[in-house]
Amino acid sequence: MPALIRAFFHTSTVAPGSAPTLGTTFATAKKHTHDLLTNAPIALSRSSFRARVESITVRVTGMAGSPAPTKISIRLCLDDAGDRIVVPDTEATIATGITTTNSGVVSYSVKVPITQILTTETGNVYLYAKVDNGTAVFTESIIQWTEN
Fold first, then answer.
1. Where are the beta strands (DSSP E) in the chain?
2. In degrees rounded to 5, what are phi and psi of residue 119?
3. Which of 9, 36, 60, 139 is most open to solvent, judged by the fewest CB atoms within 10 Å of its CB?
4. What's the DSSP call for residue 88?
5. What pLDDT does residue 46 have?
6. Do 57 and 142 form a contact (C-beta atoms < 8 A)?
7. Which residues, at least 6 apart from 47, have a Cβ–Cβ distance to it below 8 Å?
8. 97 versus 72: which is more confidently predicted?
9. How far is CA 87 from CA 9, 17, 71, 91, 96, in A?
10. Rounded to whole angstroms, how far apart are CA atoms 107 and 32?
11. Cβ atoms within 10 A of the Cβ of 126, count?
């Protein structure tokens, strides 16, 4: 007998061609817009549908400054003004490359339910980021979420 599937994983990746440069404060012009419904199934209209943001990964390049960035803080919002917060400010230390120290990545385990977001909103969420020192280019972000 086949195994019962309990959850489906979905990924939203944003890697803009002209990525914004992050500073030490959140800014409305320096965000990534993720449409979580783009590859979602028709099942979203079911009343029993449940979903959860599992993880968020951010990649930066061109880290500069004295001192250079060592941490990235993120904030996930329902509106592009950054006021309807779903995931409050969360900070992580940047893991840099072994041979390249001016680019790096952070990853966050989130585990936030998003059922009502996906069934009543457009499906867009807005990821803001900032660094603790200097500047860095907001090259890529990935949001992984599940439905069950």
1. 8-14, 21-22, 31-35, 51-64, 71-77, 85-93, 95-96, 104-113, 124-131, 135-147
2. -95, -20
3. 9
4. E
5. 45
6. yes
7. none
8. 72
9. 19, 26, 17, 11, 24
10. 15
11. 20
At 121 the pLDDT is 55
SS3 3: coil
In the three-class reduction of DSSP (H, G, I as helix; E, B as strand; rest coil), residue 115 is classed as: helix
Cα 23 to its chain centre, rounded Å, is 17
Place of tokens 């919002």: 77
Distance CA 79, CA 66 (A): 33
Residue 3: half-sphere exposure toward Cβ, Cα within 13 Å: 3
How many angstroms separate the CA atoms of 51 and 35, rounded?
14
- Kind of pairing, strands 51-64 and 71-77? unpaired
Angle at 14 between CA 9 and CA 20, to 5 degrees: 150
CB 147 within 8 A of CB 11: no
Q: What are residue 113's phi and psi, to 5 degrees?
A: -65, 140
Confidence at 27, pLDDT banded by 50, 70, 90 = very high
